[in-house]
Design brief:
This protein is of the alpha+beta class. It has 4 helices and 11 strands, in the order H-E-E-E-E-E-E-H-E-E-H-E-E-E-H.
Length: 162
């Protein structure tokens, strides 16, 4: 990720305003601005000439807090929802806690997988680059309950059971 100097956000704060009623949540000279990129993020260009392209959720954060943390996440995982109530500062590890289950998941539950060698469901939850094991379980429902409890304990407000 390219580090954008804080001065660019300070300039953006002079040009742009927050409007929760607009699709991007950003207005410039009273007009709704922004364009969606291929990943669903709203982008806006600020400055002279071609200017600098910024992600709108980062501009919204700066307009409200006057700071620019390294990572801002969307609580609902929807990158186009830039409402300030949907944004929060996060570490890389916290951001990973808020991810959905893997696309190759076969149990239907995040952090639960089948162990062929033991013929049991295993529970694995990660946080801060550390893996926590929730044991082996004969039935899926018990494994899901253990995974849910472990995620609640380890992930706190960043928990996502999807």
């Amino acid at each position: 990720m390219k580090l954008i100097p804080i001065e660019v956000y300070q300039q953006a704060a002079l040009e742009l305003s927050y409007d929760p009623a607009s699709r991007s949540c950003i207005r410039k000279n009273g007009k709704e601005v922004g364009t969606l990129d291929g990943s669903g993020y709203w982008l806006v260009r600020v400055g002279k000439d071609k200017g600098t392209l910024l992600k709108c959720h980062r501009v919204v954060w700066f307009l409200h807090h006057g700071t620019m943390p390294p990572l801002i996440e969307h609580k609902d995982r929807n990158p186009s929802n830039n409402l300030i109530t949907n944004l929060r500062e996060a570490t890389e590890s916290q951001n990973r806690c808020n991810t959905p289950k893997h696309c190759d998941n076969t149990s239907g539950a995040k952090g639960v997988f089948w162990c062929k060698s033991t013929s049991k469901w295993m529970v694995k939850v990660c946080v801060n680059y550390k893996t926590y094991w929730g044991g082996r379980h004969a039935d899926l429902e018990t494994a899901i309950a253990v995974a849910t409890e472990l995620r609640n304990k380890l992930h706190g407000e960043y928990v996502n059971h999807d």
